[in-house]
Write a structure and sequence with these properties.
The protein has two domains: 72 residues; 170 residues, Jelly Rolls, CATH 2.60.120. 28% of the residues lie in helices and 29% in strands. The protein has two helices and 15 strands. The strands form four sheets. Strands 1, 7, 11, 12 and 15 form a five-stranded antiparallel beta sheet that branches. A five-stranded antiparallel beta sheet has the order 2-6-13-9-10, with no helix packed on it. A three-stranded antiparallel beta sheet has the order 5-14-8, with no helix packed on it. The termini are far apart. This is Ubiquitin 3 binding protein But2 C-terminal domain-containing protein.
Length: 289
């Protein structure tokens, strides 16, 4: 008989209960610590995300403000540039000669230049002005024809002169070495012409104006015509004839501006020039080198 054998311990003994509660408490503390650590990590992550969003938002706002300021600056700068460009008269700018130093070259050589026929130079437009309607602007072109791009003027030059109406024309002198200019008028024979000349032969008085820039033919009137004109000469006009004024010195590239008036109180001249041929009123340029 074994007296040292101890009876089995009951599962519900007080010792087991204490150990189980202690173990359970330790497990609860571990779980709580883990939850607290997880919450802390989540909070730190949320704080970092919030700071990142705040920084990104600040950068976006700054970039937007900078862009708006740049757009405002560019708009003001462009407006100022357009205003300045609009206020400048580009026709007042100097016309630079494309024939630089050619005069010096010809003066320093004994070579004989080639002979050239006179050049027929046409005004780009003739404009009528009226002394009885000083502010009226007549259209610079007559007949118009339709094209794919709209209406364009026919290449016609209408010289109309009466006791109250005169015609203004402006020429641009072409080519170096052709700087002797002569105003000319050619009228076909009466039977072949639709022109009108009252009290033939009629006479034109030609006034020259010291204009150095291109005229705005779309705004020209008797009240706005150039000032300071001087009488260049008188030119006869008759059917079947060509008449010319004596030649005068005209610088290549310069503008030559004239007003054509009646010489007598009852005159009426209505002559049309067509195409690029020597017809109507035109300018001859003769060789000078």
């Amino acid at each position: 008989m074994n007296f040292n054998q101890q009876p089995p311990r009951s599962p519900s003994s007080p010792s087991d209960s204490v150990d189980g509660e202690y173990a359970s408490l330790l497990q609860d503390e571990d779980s709580s610590a883990k939850e607290i650590g997880h919450a802390s990590a989540t909070s730190r992550s949320a704080c970092r995300l919030e700071r990142l969003v705040r920084v990104a938002t600040t950068i976006i706002v700054l970039c937007t403000v900078i862009d708006m300021l740049l757009l405002l600056y560019l708009g003001v700068h462009q407006h100022s540039a357009n205003k300045t460009a609009g206020s400048e008269d580009h026709d007042d700018l100097e016309i630079r000669s494309p024939y630089v130093n050619l005069a010096s070259l010809y003066s320093q050589t004994s070579l004989q230049s080639s002979k050239h026929d006179p050049i027929v130079n046409h005004a780009r437009a003739f404009v009528q002005i009226s002394s009885t309607e000083p502010h009226k602007v007549f259209p610079p072109y007559g007949l118009m024809r339709p094209t794919g791009d709209g209406m364009v003027p026919e290449y016609q030059r209408h010289l109309l002169v009466t006791p109250t109406i005169s015609t203004v024309a402006q020429f641009r002198v072409a080519d170096f070495g052709m700087e002797n200019c002569s105003l000319s008028i050619t009228v076909p024979p009466r039977a072949d012409s639709k022109d009108h000349i009252h009290d033939e032969p009629a006479t034109l008085d030609i006034w020259s104006y010291p204009v150095t820039k291109k005229l705005d033919m779309q705004k020209l009137s008797f009240a706005t015509r150039p000032a300071g004109g001087t009488l260049l000469g008188s030119l006869p006009v008759s059917f079947g004839e060509t008449h010319r004024l004596p030649g005068y010195r005209c610088l290549s590239g310069s503008y030559q501006t004239f007003e054509f008036r009646c010489s007598t109180p009852e005159c009426k001249i209505d002559v049309m020039g067509d195409g690029d041929r020597a017809s109507g009123l035109y300018m001859y340029q003769y060789q000078t080198v």
